[in-house]
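Please check this:
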Amino acid sequence: MQQPRSALSPLPDIVRGPSAPPRLPPRPSPPPPAPDFLVIGLFALRLTKRLIESLEYYPGRDADIIWLVNFLSPFHNEYELAKISGARRDDYLATYQSIVSRMKKQPKYPMRFMQMNPDRSAQPARRGSEMERPRDMTDVERLEIINFCDAAGEWGSILPIPAREAERMVELADRRKIADLDEQYYEDERPTTNRAKRPLTWKMALRDPASTDIVDYCIRGESNHLYEEPDVDEDIVYRIIPGDAVTDEELDICAGNFSSDYGVWSWRAHLEMGMMAEYGKPIHMSRVRLRAQCLPEGANNILVTVVTKDDRHVGHCFVSQWMHGDNRVWWITQLVVVKRYRNQRRATRMLQALAMHYDVGRSTQRDLVGIATVNPYSLCAILRVFGRGIEVLPSKPDWEKCRIRHTPLLSAACEPIVGAAPLSYIRNAKLSQGKLIANTRFFVDHATSEEAMERIIHSMNQQVSGPWEWLFGCLEPGHEYVCILDYSYDQEYKMDLALFDTPSVPNEPCLGKHAASPSKALFRAAFGSSRPPEQSPTPVRYADIDRYLLEVPESCVLDLNLSNRAHASLHGSMRKLIYEAKELIAKHLRVLPTIMGAKHIPRDLRRVYQTANMIFPLPGQIQTWGDFVPYVQEVFEHGINTEARMLILQAIHFQELRETDEREQKERAKNASALAKTTRSKEKKRSFMDTKEKPGIEPLAYAAYSLKDNNEERFAKSRTKRQQPYTSHTRDGT
């Protein structure tokens, strides 16, 4: 494609036109169709943003800056032109000229325009100052001038360019590189012996795990008016380095980042490991230990780093790849992001770069991606890239009943993979029976991990009506989560978040039905309908149970051996509910308040606490257990059994929601079976009717001759049959 010529290149000499008879005016023709794409000047957009920022506030200024930032965010700074199409082109045509128009109307625009002009020869000379002699410009200065002149042309102004530099400036303008976002990812290939940057190229080369290429990937997300791509300002790239090419300097940097930003020793570490592991002190990692743990022999080792524009490493990911039978195993041994650069999808993009570079999930071999970690957010990153995200992960009981695609392998399937690992601390780890937890004897403090787990559990329970249980379980000292995914590439999966439009889903049976929003489609595929459950067959009388627990304090004893199931004053069903609630508390005490904290309290319980008889009636904004429990503790601040009473009520509500969810799942399965049966019946009936309407048409047998010859042969056979006289056959065939 021919590069667009600069709008302000020197004009050709004016010559007299050839003598020719005058032509008649042409007939009006329809306007040409709009092109499918446009080639625009990113330099002009950047200069527009810079000029607007130098102006004083005016209506629409901030919105214009935000639009320019978001529009430019996917493009690397080394690209000065861009090919845009589709919605991006329509957005540019509809918005950019309006932004320029508002900018030009500002009173200080002319002054800022002249101040930004990089051509010093065009600046008015000060009185009494000597004229500067012309000097040779650098290519950077020439490009700045031609870019500003072309941008001024888009703004409606004409600026001359220095005559002695015109030819070189036009040549530089013709060399502008064009970015094309049809390819989402681009890479920078470099030889292993040269770490200096080279211009980025728009191609993807899939490599074998034993490849020795060092490649930088620039991954940018889709921009919008509310989201500013964080990687643009720092010009971040994701660098793939094979294990054999990792230098001692890079190991020192990774070990330093791990030591300062990973975690601290737990109280158990001092007992197990002695003076080297002091409680609360950061876990120190040396270069030698890091090489031994993350670059083992017998595996293809890879280092992925997050590198800023000033060549600082702000994150890294060590990966070891080996064969397990005919399957390729990719084990993430260490995933660290510096604290200042977290919560911006840097860990996710390191895993994206790994998957792109080594064609993970695209080859004919089966790819298994695994990790052992104490950090739930690391699990979220691996589920985002190699699964379908944490938000479509089923609850633990559902996951144990039925194997769902894109979810972690069961513990029994993980054991042979873990046992064959070339990493000694993984190979010697003992998996807990029926749990995705392994004893690796890594005694890191779990306070941060538990806080992250509680946030995930609370957020997930806001999204679904039934109780959602964290399927990885709770960590014991020295244990880590284990997650292994069977990954295959799916081009339709875009790694987008799939959350509900509402912050929480009402779950009490009496609230009625709620309409589903379009963004719930992915949740319906994993969990079914997110509407509130129907009225249970026998509604639980929470108000009566709460009154009994309040009047009989000994009934709130949570120890099953002391409670002895003796609640003679209660109806049989209530007695059973309380005892089952205590069994549930003994099993799920650590996560029960977190799960139920996002659920709405039952309606009859809310009605009792909102009556005028209460000293402090329940405020209307308190809807969930997470807000209701602190309110009750404040109302009954001297009650000795308040905490246990609230736990029992939450456990009963947990069991009710679980039973309601199970009934809904059975009903959905029954409806799906009935629908499939009806569909098969209709298809069978339709096929029968088609055959009945066309009795003379038979399926054509495969033959080498044409359809015409086949029809003629059939016609001849039927004519012959009509001409044969009727004859009867005896038993022996004569």
Notes: The first strand starts at residue 37 and ends at 41. Residues 37-121+139-180 form one domain. The chain has three domains: 37-121+139-180, 185-220+227-487, 542-667. The two ends are 83 Å apart (CA to CA).
